[in-house]
Protein 1
Amino acid sequence: MILLHQRPSKREIDKRLKDARKAVTERRVLFANDAKVVGELMALDIDDTDEVWELIEELLEELELDDYAGGRPPQRSTEPQIANSELWAFCWNSPKLKEWMYLKFAIKESCFCYVSLHKSKFPKDKNL
């Protein structure tokens, strides 16, 4: 039986994480869906968008390759602003927030596109 290489590879995940960290550090960022973001930020007690980018910058440093929780291959976005961009989802136990967290983003034209950030509904230790 021949096993086909399943995307994304660890190397590809690593590249997307590096791209994301660089884009956020340089503040090349956007929200994929402003209406959805408002509720998520309120749930995290964040009132200022500058705060969310600082937080995401810290959270991206916590992520490891094995935290990838997205599709294989990565799903494509249907949000108009980032339509057809690959979605990169991660689930991990955040030391900073002391919660299992879920982060989903896309990289489009070297920008970090925030799709979702919230407490994970399905922590890895509960069969994510």
Protein 2
Amino acid sequence: MRHRPSRRRCAAALCRWVLLLAAASGAGAAAAADELLADLDHRLARSSADAVNAHLVAQWSAAMAPLNHKTASCELHAVSLATRLSRSHNTAAVQAHGEALRAASGSCARFVLAMATLPEVPRVCGSVSSWGPAQTARELRRRIAAIDADDVLRTTRRGTTCRAAYVYELENTRVVVRRGAATPSGR
């Protein structure tokens, strides 16, 4: 009879696998990735995140916008790059990477959370600024339910921190709809 590993061991093994995949997509698979991601990886290997972000901001439509689109679409190499580049002092670039990572966290939450450090989790677990209040409320509820349904995310510290960030935003921001007292009809 074979011994089945515990869920916690499976979660740890999955996190290790995701981190190995991230490392492979960040350096080893650059040749297989498209030119933009390979170029950005090469630039990041030669210089700092600040220097790469200065290039991205200067080449917004040719570099930053495509990178953020790929990140929001959950291309793992782009998510890995955006996560590393979001650790910069360039405010415009950090905000752009954060938006893309928040969009990606709705589709590939496990990977985004595996790439983020624990203090970064609340920044990537939030609403996208282009959403209206109703869409924000729906999407936050959907993401909370997705974490609740995912055994790995529900039981890991990053997953519970992400869920808490979603709940906090849902209950304490512009999407909060409170029931007021009934007004007299005046008849």
